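Subject: Sanity check before I submit

Could someone independently write out the structure tokens for this chain? I want to compare against mine line by line before I put it in a report. The sequence has 190 residues.
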Amino acid sequence: MSLVELIAQADERGLAASGLACLDRCVPLLGGDDDVLRPLWASLAETDPWAEWGTRLDEARAKLDAEDPEPAVTDEDHAAVLARVMLDAVPSKPSEEELRAWSDACSVAALQVHRFLDHADDAEACVTARREGRTEGMSPLVAAELRRQVAILELLAEHGKGGLRPALDASTEGRRVLRAVVSRRARGRA
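---
Independent answer below. Compare away.
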């Protein structure tokens, strides 16, 4: 099943976890520590995931708030702008429709972030084809991000709340990979 189909079939918790996971993997671009989004993950494990969601979201945003970014010049700048857009777009009192739109936008943005940061050329300029299942010629970093997005949605579809922990683990691994890529690129410029 393609990523687009998985998002279309996901329930509210799955959509929120999918979008949150995309954002979580991009936290290194926002200067955040690894635990900044943990309270939002915790919300998703609760009986009423939205009871504390807005408050926890405000706290996470406050921790990640930075001055307005400089105009995007490098690939890292473009990637950071996309990560900021994902954070700014998180719905504070989500409906299923809002979560689906946000999750879908986060999916596209996270794939774009990985395209910006991958040194290998991605033969397909548009991530839409990737999300629909056309993966030939895909760069390694984008391929790994696509696999993570699919795996997270499948875990949540199959296990519901029980899939949150493995989804968080997959996201954490993706964040480590992205942090290493950003660090390696910074060393290369120095």
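---
OP: Matches mine. For the report I'm noting this point. The mean pLDDT is 90.
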